[in-house]
Amino acid sequence: MKMRHAKKRLIVASLVATSLVATMAGCASGAAGGGSDGNNGELTVWTHNGGNVEELAAVQAIVDGYNESQDKTTVKLQAFPQASYNDSVIAAAASGKLPCIVDIDGPNVPNWAWAKYLTPLDLSVDLDENLPSTLGIWNGETYSVGYYDVALAMFARKSVLAENGIRQATIDQPWTQAEFGDALEKLKATGTWTNPLDIGTGDVGEWYPYAFSPLLQSFGGDLIERDEYQSAEGVLNGPEALEWAEWMQSLATDGYIATKSGADSALDFQNNVTAIQYGGSWAAANNAAALGDDLAVMPSVDLGEGTKIGGGSWQWGVTTGCADTEAAMDYLSYSLSPENIAAVAVATATIPATDAAAALVPGFEEGGNLAIFREFSAQSAVLRPETPAYPFIATEFTKATQDIINGGDPQDTLDAAVTAIDANIKSNGGYTQK
Predict the structure, then answer these.
(1) What is the mean pLDDT of the chain?
(2) In a domain, 272, yes or no
(3) What is the CATH number for 245?
């Protein structure tokens, strides 16, 4: 996955989420029934990959392979430009004309399931083989499955770390908060970099909750309490969250990060505009091509409660309006072969969802130079809250984080976000299944 594709995915996911949480809240008691897709031996797959040539080609190859493997069902792939996927899904959902299979960003699956647009999966493959972050689960049911995930990491030049007496962090010994602060202070003091660290503050949409809520969780806070998912009180505005907010703000006030970073964090890192990039696994290949053996790939920082990174990427689900769910489940089961998962992972430069698929992808095999990202994901990934309220939570968290980085009062900002989130949950009856 090239950086621009990853960013587009995150932007579109946020747009879809913001619109769908409002649209679906008004019709959550209904189902996506009434559609005709799946009749007459034909079913349709919708994807947001109209603007991503590599991934679209990989998915099309899976569709073609399935059609050639049997003669009962013909699957048709319909791709939308990312900018219009949002509107197309909303319109189809409102009119009960969703296709049999849709792709959806993982953290938004509970909202779709709550609105009764997705049906639980009943596949012939063992999903226990998948990375947990590649499954969309709500109320104990699995509603979606993905071919891949991505992972966050710290990228730096080994030579820069050595020159400044900074230890290269490892998966067993990540940087502590104090150690990370000391490293940034040393790098800033050299005068080489205006802002030594790039955390992608210039990005928009889903990047903020994906990249920055794990840092909150590493402090011991969270976006919402995860027992009943009914309130953010005490977890998004408690002492641990306040400590996170003050730390995030200090990164800007101390000059370690820009309040709005460049358009391409990876490119800035490769061009030595910044010394450390907090970015995704999709940047690894280009970073390695630019820096070679000088590239250090390190885990995220341990801010007190262990390293945490975001989990969950685009996945596939079957809609409740599908006229032939058995055929849809059969197609999805076929698509999850190690060979198919590996082909998509190669096309997107992402982490293969299963060990069997990883063994087929150069670099992700055991001992490969990219296998560390699967370790990051397996050991540190935290799913964004599995609640239908997540799209609203994500929007509020993004606004709050931007305000904090730009100098807003940390406690007041967090309190305001909690008030808005709790009010949204209450106004939707706690997002309990209807």
Answers:
(1) 91
(2) yes
(3) 3.40.190.10
**C-beta separation of 389 from 428 below 8 A:** yes
| CB distance 29 to 98 below 8 Å | no
Q: Could you tell me which residues come within 8 angstroms of residue 423 by beta carbon, excluding any fewer than 6 positions away?
A: none
Write the CA distances from 224 to 154, 212, 227, integer angstroms: 26, 14, 9
On whether both 167 and 54 belong to a single domain, the answer is no
Query: Are residues 96 and 136 both part of a single domain?
Result: yes
Give Cα separations from 49 to 77, 151, 155, 188, 223 (angstroms). Answer: 11, 20, 28, 40, 29
Tokens of 239: 């002492």
As a whole number of angstroms, the longest Cα–Cα distance in the chain is 69
For helices 239-253 and 410-427, the axis angle rounded to 10 degrees is 130
Residue 402 domain boundaries: 152-309+388-431
What confidence category does residue 78 fall into, taking pLDDT thresholds of 50, 70 and 90?
very high
What does the alpha-carbon distance between residue 297 and residue 278 come to, in Å, rounded to a whole number?
10
Structure tokens at 305: 């409660």
What is the C-alpha to C-alpha distance for residues 24 and 29, in angstroms, rounded to an integer? Answer: 9
pLDDT digits (tens, 9 = 90+) for 54-76: 999 999 999 999 999 999 999 99
Please check the confidence at residue 84 and state whether its pLDDT lies above 60: yes
pLDDT of residue 86: 65
Produce one character per residue of 60-92: b if its CB has 16 or more CB atoms within 10 Å, e if not: eebbebbeeeeeebebebebbebeebbeebbeb
